[in-house]
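User: Hey, quick favor. My workstation is busy. Could you predict this chain's structure for me?
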Amino acid sequence: MEKYEHEYGADQIQVLEGLEAVRKRPGMYIGSTSIRGLHHLVYEIVDNGVDEALAGYCTEINVVIEEGNVISVTDNGRGIPVEIHPKTKISTAETVYTVLHAGGKFGGDSGYKVSGGLHGVGASVVNALSNWTEVTIKRDGGLYQMYFEKGKTIKKLERIGDATGTGTKVRFLADDTIFESLNYEYEVLEKRFREIAFLTKGLKITIEDKREEEPKKAEFCYEGGLNSFVEYLNKNKEKLHKNPIYIEKDGEVPVEIAIQYTSSYSENIYTFVNNINTIEGGTHLEGFKRALTKVFNDYARSHNILKEKDSNLQGEDIREGITAVVSVKVKEPQFEGQTKTKLGNSEVTGVVQSMVNEALSTFLEENPNVAKAILEKCISASRAREAARKARELVRKKSNLETSTLPGKLADCSSKNPDECEVYIVEGDSAGGSAKQGRDRKFQAILPLWGKMLNVEKARADKIYGNDKLNPVIIAVGGGIGADFDITKIRYGKVIIMADADVDGAHIRTLLLTFFFRYMRPLIENGNVYLAQPPLYKLAKKGMKDIYCYTDEDLEKSFEELEEKGIPRDSVSIQRYKGLGEMNPEQLWETTMDPEKRTLIKVTMDDAIKADEIFTLLMGDEVEPRREFIQQNAKYVKNLDI
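Assistant: No problem, here it is.
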């Protein structure tokens, strides 16, 4: 990687304000004090090494989770400057770790061309929220070290010896009085570092977990950059062309893009700015989509694939089955909000659009077979979209005509306030009957379903609108589906899937979740989807109140508690529920539907990439990856017959 030739010394470290309130309001700086905020501490330190890599100086970052949940991050970048800072009158390294908004990433005369650490709060916030922090620096032929406790300097920076090379090593123990847990999840960190390695071509990142008897270790380095990323995302999908389409251009706004089409019907575009995952997109995504639509339509017209009488292909037609990663480097990115999830720099739209127009047009002309395969899929998608539009209009007319009765066998609630209303999607007529009788009619609606529903992973939208199992769900939930889905129009604040606790029930839950993920994704992102948790067992004895157990662990614990009260196990009858229909309305209400007693699991989507991978793996066309997944994970399965 080309080095950014610029001074990186004390004069480049600019101080904006002091380090007050971080410990009092940690959520303002790292989002939360949950496990997510804990992981954020690691990302902040690693990002400093990544910024050195983006500047062309760092080639390796090593992360170790030591015993006791101590984190160690080592990079071979330039090392934090050690000289006295002209403004703070203390060492520059200490300034970086004790003064909020002190960093080499502000303004035109900074130490970095581009940076993910936009706000310069990383190092100082990690220091403030840790029990202790130890920083070791190799720079200018010397080995330097400093030590802090809860953000306070205990040992000022001092030279402790000589050293060859350069770099920074940071060790810290997060403050257990601030965070809910200090137990880092290795898989979460591993996923993030793999992503960073994809986005930073040639950077080697290793992560090692030394907390268990058998340490875990992974190493990531991808010379292919985004090509490797797209190949990884599509590893379980059928590809329309073997190699990704790769676009790269340096300049004032460096852009790197990789594109590969698959036979799937979903669209997966991931965007990044300075390695920050912009999950809400922004101007770089807008430029990419505009160019994609124009280039394919122009090619189809110029090669007579689209006739004069044919309408242009729409963007959604051209993006069906696409997997793409768009990464831009912006010197002074403007993000919407502290969460950095949407890029706002208007000039980036034109840069990306122009670059994709030129590079993709050239690629299609030089690879007519690939162009033909993609356009055949686009035209097929266009026809399906038109069929879906007609089906959608029928559904809309039907729903407008039947607003008094609503779809299928839905038993609606009396309240019309979505904030207090909830709908149970229930497997089977028998369970649906019990649920209807046991519910609170004011705020609980019941929609019974029967039989296996459509696997939307293998179907286009036109098949979905005409499906007798999914139509009732679409109409009942409200808000539409796909690109038309409007979260503000949903009729229920909670959409609760209530299926039997057996293999068939698990299949139905998976089919419904696949549908929500692909066609009503905001419903999951907004936290409106839940899974009901019916009990597995009932313990009964004359003169004793019935005891319901939701897991095998609950069952064992209940038996132990009864024995402590002098009630032997063999005197208690145990009923194993095979399905929801075995419970009468009162039991179903008491165990599964009463807001005061029930247990609901909220379905979340923290990681869209992982979610897409799992849905493709479990519900897609490729059999071999699914077989491998089952073989690898069979040993972890519990209660297979439930």
